[in-house]
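TEACHING EXERCISE
Course module: macromolecular assemblies
Task: Read the component lines below, then compare them to the predicted structure of the full complex.
Student: A.B.
Group: 4
Components provided:
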Amino acid sequence: MRQLVRQPSSKRAADAHVVELRIPSSAEWVGVARLAIAGIASRMEFSIEDIEDLKLAVAEACTSYIQNAQEADELCISAEVGTERITITMDACDASRGAVAASDAPAHGLGSFLIRTLMDEVAYEYAPESGTKLVMTKLLHK
Amino acid sequence: MNIVDIKVNVRQLDGRDRDICVLDLNGEIDVYTSPKVKETITDLIDQGHYTLVINLENVRYIDSTGLGVLIGGLKRVREHSGTVNLVCTNPQIKKIFDITGLVKIFGIYDSEKAACDNL
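Instructor-supplied answer key:
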């Protein structure tokens, strides 16, 4: 597992920070992704209910990638932390080849329904060569 | 890595007019732990127990794989005219049953007594 914090880049909002997490693409690591996102959301002062929503959305996304992108050996989770929102980007990677193509199944099923219900914005970006990327945002309601 | 995030205990209730098995679950039900829950439910059904109360009072977290296990168990016991009632007091878990519409499928109660009385 590798975790790093980057300074804001020109592509992100000036006040946004990014936390990246790579976990092995296997079931026992999903709990680690859940805990990591809960820690970030807690620091952003999301409500307990919103933190639980984020934990579930991230776990559902991880589960979907594990089940549908079986050639991947890592899941890449990036959380862009702003003052009013958190945007989480996920894709599946092969450590030696970079992003791998997942089937379009992650956009369907009960897990996807939960993600769409619990998050404020959800987009699946398909690219045959670079894989399926999930981008989801939760707004901070203060 | 060896992590066990779910504990499963099975009790058979005496003194009732029908055979009732209570599953006490303690921990988190996700893609990693749900196979253990599924195995326990499957074993009970294979042994001929078709009236189940699944106690989620000590479950801190459940995701779609956990819901899938509960739905699968309910489908199997219904093939034998059985049923599954749930005990759930955690508001976040209740919310998940609510938004997925599963409140209409399962009997969900605040106590084990209520879940057993309404089988």
